[in-house]
Amino acid sequence: MTDEIDLSRLPPPEPYDEARDKAQRKRLLDVWRAPPGWKIISAVNNDYIGKWYLLTSFAFFTFAGILALLIRVQLAVPNNELFSQSLYNQLFTLHGTAMMFLFAVPIFEAVAILVLPEILGARDLPFPRLSAFGFWCFIIGGVFVCGSIFFGVAPDGGWFMYTPLSSNPDYSGLGADIWLLGLSFIEVSSIAAAVELIVGVLKSRPPGMRLNLMPLYCWYVLVVAGMILFAFPPLIAGDLLLEMERAFGWAFFDPDRGGDPLLWQHLFWIFGHPEVYIIFLPSIALIATMLPTFAGRPMVGHSWIVLSAVGVAFLSFGLWVHHMFTTGLPEISLSFFSAASEAVAVPTGIQIFCFIATMLVSKVRPSVPMLFAGGALAIFVFGGLTGVMVALVPFDWQAHDSYFVVAHLHYTLIGGMLFPLFAGIHYWYPFTTQRKMNDRAGTWSFWLMFGGFNLAFLPMHWTGVMGMPRRVWTYDLTDGWAVLNMVSTLGAFVFAAGFAVLAVNVLWPRGKQPPVARNIWNAGTMEWSAEVPDKPWGIRSIPYIHTRYPLWEQEDLMGQVDRGEWFLPDAQEGKRELIVTDILDARPLFVQRVGGPTFLTLGAAFCLGAAFILATFHLWTITLIFGAGFAGFTLWWLWTGTSRIPETPEKYAGRGLTLPTYAQGNRSPGWWAVFITMTGDMTAFMGLVFSYFFYWTALPGFLPSADRLPGFGWLLAGLALLFGSWAMTVAARGTLGRGQRGLAMALLVGALPIGALGIGAWIWAAWTQGLDPTAQSFDAMVWMLILWMGLHLLLNWVMHLYVAARVKFGHCTPEYRADLMNLTLFTHFLALTAVTTFALLAVFPLLMGVGP
Amino acid sequence: MRHGSDEQPRHVTPPGDAPRVVDQGSVWILVAVPSIWAAHFLLSYWVAAIWCAKAAPMASLVEPRWIIVGLGVIGAAAIAWLGRIAVRRYGGVFVIFEEITESSERGRDRFIGHVTLLLCVLSVVAIIFTVIPGLVFATC
Amino acid sequence: MRFSIYLTLPLFLAGCSGRHNWLASAGAEADRVEGLFWVLLIGAAVIWCLVIGAAVYAHRRQVDPSLETQARRFIIWGGAVFPSVLVGTLLVWGLVILRDITADEGDLTVRVDGERWWWRVIYETSEGDVVTANEIRLPVDRTALFRLTADDVIHSFWVPALGGKMDMIPGRETRLTLTPVKTGNWGGLCAEYCGGAHALMRFDAIVMEQADFEAWLAHEAEPAQVAAGDPGYTVFAEEGCGACHTIRGTEAAGPVGPDLTHLAAREKLGAGIYEMTPGNMARWITETHEMKPDIDMPPYPDLSGARLDRLVAFLMSLD
Q1: Interface of A with B in 300-339 (CB under 8 A)
Q2: Which of A71, A295, A768, C93 has a CA that sits 20 to 30 A from residue B104's CA?
Q3: pTM for the complete prediction?
Q4: Superfamily of domain A40-279+514-663, CATH level 4
Q5: ipTM of this model?
């Protein structure tokens, strides 16, 4: 590892030539231009997807905010008859659900998709079509879930959907299915975005941007996307269990059949608490990006902020039981979570004090974004302090499920998430639109929202102390909560007025105004190098970065970039190109070609959405048809858009740098995407493993007697066959590498029946012992693990056939075989799943002394 | 070490750069330190949960208590060991607020070392927090 | 911020009454939390002022390179050391309180079963179980152990004035101890969202002098005094009320709904939501779902006139 990129050794740029510049610009423009007219919906570039994502999230925010106002109207006076009990239960459920799943998490993805590539000085994220797919999934799922309230069938079990209220069809109707399927669908799109962002931060950095030079925003995005990867899958596993119980009567949560309602709470909150930080950290990231700009100096304690981001991310996974303090778990168990909940205050404190320290050594320019940031600090610190209170178990026994907690969570989320986001809106508005928002309206909207917020939520703490429980649609005058509630309602409307001012300020048509000056705030990060007016290519040429704040510290960087003096200044081949770099030091590895506008992702998202929606109504046949449609569109998309063999093995990227045009294995973003996706998939599987051990711990009779266990011999045989199938895939990779195409195809296709026999042996093992998933939780768990394996195997078979076809048609060759390498990686994870499942089904009962 | 997944077409490699994924273990040490806290946390929770579920109610917590403390000591020792590696990476005098902005491999390595060192401190504090309940409670 | 503090201050002061108030000092357990609450509240206010003060100071202060050192101290002491020590101390204090307010035994044991949306209450006495519903009476200065279960969905048992809450979970039994120290009628609530009429799932927690409590419990254990051929009971039997409700001392032994043996002795109707008056009783029978939507009890809109009067009179005589 001796090769530092040495600036002095780079050949100097070619002298500026206006005609060449014009020609290059024209070619870049042709390549990156969005499709005209209505076909714009087929755009996949991060500029468009990011903006749409942002606007859609805010539309859902407005919708959920209106629900909140309706809630406040209902509670304004005691014994109010405005809404029925049933409608009110739907209102608050949908308010929480939409705010969390359709606004707070997606907005992180929206902002990141919009600004991350630009901060990285990249032209786009590595998988633009995946972003587009995620966006379309999000909007379809969101409209489906929100629209349900207009038909009176919105979910009404609370945003946490506690079982058995949600699992027993006698207690909950269609709303619960809409919640489960609609949100599972959106979770899929969140995970897609997380994969995109992780790979983006790791592999799409500009040459030279080593880890120690990476902007704080990128650290936060990396950390948060990683958290999504470990937090969402357990909920997906939980959703799967819950929907299996609702739709087919499998016994997971029904105590009469060996289930346990608390399992859902564990799976939900293992997701739910990190989720709070998944929401909070990206907004702090916005402040960490804005503050140095207005302070005019680098952030004080850069590595301390990285420490606190990573520290919070980890600790946040040790807090989930603090939502379950009142469930009667042993006090010692509660105490561990109380301890972690207190400990998380430490890195959070560090984060805040780094900001204050930066302010101390600089003169912060007053501005609307900083006004919002200051308001955020005031609100969030208060929410953090009440958080320290409710993290104490005895205190929580009083505060839990009272309005005190409602006040606490709104202080943390609105102070920690919404206000920084509004600051960011004002800050990046000129970046996105080349116009500036009105400062006076901005100040007005701030004070209205700040005043209204405190008016609404500060008294709410006291409403909680007065004993008002959450989620009640009515109360009596004698309860003594009337005045406090009326004040909160007034505050809510003032807050809403502030948001209305902000919304008008954002949407105000400014087409006739002159564009703003370039880098209007005099920021140091790369996104402000964008030309005014904006160009669709993201960045004219991709520079070499060797400082943390390149626009401040690298002289004439903008000029060099504009004149096309850096890498990839041209698009001779008419392809959208990015530079992929390595994780540690951002050395250029190869030139990646990414897909342009397409309707395939739209088709795939539409079919998948339709499949989920139809499954809600148990219309299985049409569901299957649309499922097949989804598979078709996806395969078409992959076939035509990925792992294309380049016309030339390498190309000149400028400044003496010649890069390959193809990569496979662990150099290619695709391999990393598979790796990261499968890590998320393994986490979901771990959710099932956790469930198994949870039952074993909580229920004395979970493991049945030996004659009710799946047969050991069959399980072992199945494992051996599954292993054989895995070995054949691995062998195919080697044989193709040696040029034996026929043999490789034979191995790939031959792995199918071997795997089928393997899973067949497992099914047989459970079937012959008469295991009935509707009868007992153990039986249901066994079938669920086999089902999980089977579904993955099914997917694996499709991939095998796909790769075999790629080999057959010459898209996957002995030299260019990224597809096969990715498939092998997938299969490795499958083998791990098989071993773990075998250990749970065959070995663990044996160890516990109930085996044969 | 080369894996199958390292092979590239026609063996073209970028100028002077071997495939660099995670060699030198550079990034993993960042994650390893808090992972030790996480492992200690989960083990403590499981020990207590299984103990309370499988033993009779009001079972004495004496034994799991010492398991938790023992795990804490092991965890802290492991973190100390990683901390030593971090110090070596970070190199030289411990300056709490150094901004490591040099553009070199060494700079990147020192930065990772620095953050890891800070994470070591935080993780040890978090482990101490986790041990406290074990000391306060004598019953389930 | 400041504006709204002033605005809500009178509410804070006014808020110290109220039967659901955590700060009513009516229970030993609530008292411990109350002490914690005031310390935390004042501490939080001080810390909030300090942090915001630091931010304002940092903002106002002239730029001065010599402040670099001070800035770093800020992060170490304000951001790392101070919070660690503070939350560590609070953690220990909180855990000690937790240890103190949980006990496994009480002077009396009450089993409470959460139903949709009412409470089945069973006193365990040496002479056997005494079953009642929707009203819990407790002797002052005695520790009551509550054994909590649920039949259908998760509920949560909470008497804010006496102490913390505890969930009632199907398939599990949870425990809570409460030691009332003030007599009075304290409100009880279901705190965990349980669907439908969650808002209307209340009960009265009446703390009595010990002697009064003993007398009440003894009376509650008695069967109802129903004269043979009571015209109201006849209506009750003809309408099939006994299929769901039990009135000890009669043939009505339905296990589904609340026990009605001493119904009229309770202060409230419909799980702590309406005054126990003949008018409310009549409405409850005929317009059940207007009074409490979604509940399992069917309304009897056709019951009217003399039959309804007789039934109401009978029910109101069950004291």
Answers
A1: 300-304, 306-307, 310-311, 314-315, 317-318, 329-333, 335-336, 338-339
A2: A295
A3: 0.95
A4: Cytochrome c oxidase-like, subunit I domain (1.20.210.10)
A5: 0.94
